[in-house]
Amino acid sequence: MKSLAELAAIRDRMKDKVSIREGSGNIRVVVGMATCGIAAGARPVLSAFVEEVAKEGLSDKVTVTQTGCIGICQYEPVVEIFEDGKDKVTYVKMTADKAKRVVAEHLKGGKPVEEYAIGNK
Fold first, then answer.
1. DSSP-assigned beta bridge partners for residue 118
2. Residue 4: CA atoms inside 13 Å, Cβ hemisphere, count?
């Protein structure tokens, strides 16, 4: 970094991603990031959700956060989606590619991806 202007440019580029992680949308995406989740690949899943939510222009209604152990380690990476007035949806064995599909079909389209979900059939 060579100048204050470069630092300001970096801040501006990252502002959307940070607001997604701290937002107050009515849909919350929670990624399990305990050691079991991280070891199973949760970090790229979290990044994919943040990037796709920003790319699809959903940051005003979707907040992406992380949590510790969700308690079903054998199914990691685990992602829970909470929506106002709807039942929680728990996605298991997630990947970055699956996260992109969940953003497109569930968060944007309103229809959960049943083949990735567990416990809500």
1. 90
2. 0
Q: Residue 117: left if φ>0, alpha if ψ -120 to 50, beta else—which one? A: beta
Cis previous bond, 44, omega within 30? no
Nearest to 37 by CA among 29, 28, 46: 46
Measure the N-to-C terminal CA separation of the chain; round to a whole number of Å.
52
Residues 6+ apart with CB under 8 A from 109: none
Q: What tokens were used for 66? A: 């992380």
- Digit-coded pLDDT (tens) for 72-90: 999 999 999 999 889 999 9
User: Which residue is listed with tokens 């849909």?
Assistant: 27
pTM passes above 0.90? no
Burial of 57 per CB tally in 10 Å (0-12, 13-18, 19+): exposed
